[in-house]
Amino acid sequence: MDLRKQLFELGRITGGWWIIIVLFYPVYNLIVAAVALLTGFTAEPLAFIDSARLFDPGAVFFLLAVVLLFPSIEEIGLRGYWFDQLQTRWSALVSSLILGTVWALWHVPLLYMSGYYEGTTFQPELWWFLPSIVLTAIIGTWVYNNTSRSVLAVILFHFFGNFTGETMGFAPEMYPSVTIGTVIVAFVLVIWFGPGSLRGRDVPRPLPDWATVRSTP
């Protein structure tokens, strides 16, 4: 199964991409926080995790679900089973926008579930949260396409994003600014790597097993 390879072949992720996967979100949060401090926007841009939560079994279980279980379900479902089919028909950018829109709509009911985000540092609102999800899908595609379509890579990228948000997240007043920062990052990636593939020129694009079979005469 091609999905099995995408999940377990560590060789798809080269050394430099391991660094990006692990450090992208912590570095991004620190840069945005530094800009907020230097511009006087706020004196406390980051909301660090309450140490008491680390000793609450229920809170720890929910934290593990948020940072590990949910990213695995979402990325396997959207990237693993669907995204390659989108990319065979549209550019990486358009495919990301389609996936990101579905991914954003998936989160809408969660915003109306009483207490769902109560145990987290996150306080989302539709007007900025949904666009940020769509833009984050573009960044995820950049990781995915540059790691030989590794679903494991985007799961880990998603994991470290959620983990950073839960342990070193932003104060609520920072959320609109963070969305603007995500716009800037996505724009730079599209311009630099190109909307067609969002992939470096020296990175091959391995075909999915089903696409290889279909193209065989």
Automatic annotation (TrEMBL):
Regions crossing the membrane: 16-38, 58-78, 90-106, 126-144, 151-171, 177-195
Domain of life where this protein originates: Archaea
GO BP, one annotated term: proteolysis
Keywords: Hydrolase, Membrane, Protease, Transmembrane, Transmembrane helix
InterPro entries referenced in this protein's UniProt entry, alphabetically: MmRce1-like, Rce1/LyrA-like_dom
Pfam families: Rce1-like
PANTHER family in the record: PROTEASE (PTHR35797:SF1), PROTEASE-RELATED (PTHR35797)
Protein name from the UniProt record: CAAX protease family protein
